[in-house]
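Tokens in:
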């Protein structure tokens, strides 16, 4: 699943919390061609990714995989993010890496960082605080600080609830 990839890459939560990982960004084309699509480049110019830009870039990524013979598993919107499975064969072939990097990676990462307070990680941390009798605050990064300040190891907290 890609949903928490950028947040985890930004070092905002320990990887063991949700177990997400993914391939590093790799250029999708030869050195004579751009490393990201024109559409993705345009979306990044404004500094703030809109829902339409996020969704358009996702659809371009999905279409790229489809052209290579792969279909994403159960793509849907969850906690302000696209959530889906990537077929192992798409990853093994390198198609996922190329399509993601070229069409969606930077837009996806910018969107995830902008929506970190409503992410699955944010919910896990808030639930952890509640389970320990501490009222969480609005900001995800502030809740991470509350965990640290109170000496709470997130690995000792429930992941649902």
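Residues out:
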């Amino acid at each position: 699943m890609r949903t928490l990839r950028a947040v985890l890459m930004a070092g905002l939560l320990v990887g063991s919390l949700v177990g997400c990982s993914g391939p590093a960004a790799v250029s999708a084309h030869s050195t004579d061609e751009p490393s990201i699509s024109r559409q993705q480049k345009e979306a990044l110019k404004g500094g703030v990714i809109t829902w339409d830009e996020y969704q358009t870039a996702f659809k371009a990524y999905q279409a790229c995989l489809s052209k290579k013979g792969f279909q994403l598993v159960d793509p849907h919107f969850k906690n302000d993010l696209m959530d889906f499975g990537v077929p192992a064969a798409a990853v093994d072939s390198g198609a996922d890496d190329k399509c993601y990097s070229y069409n969606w990676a930077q837009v996806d990462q910018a969107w995830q960082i902008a929506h970190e307070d409503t992410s699955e990680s944010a919910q896990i941390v808030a639930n952890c605080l509640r389970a320990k009798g501490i009222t969480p605050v609005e900001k995800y990064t502030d809740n991470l600080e509350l965990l640290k300040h109170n000496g709470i190891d997130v690995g000792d907290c429930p992941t649902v609830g």
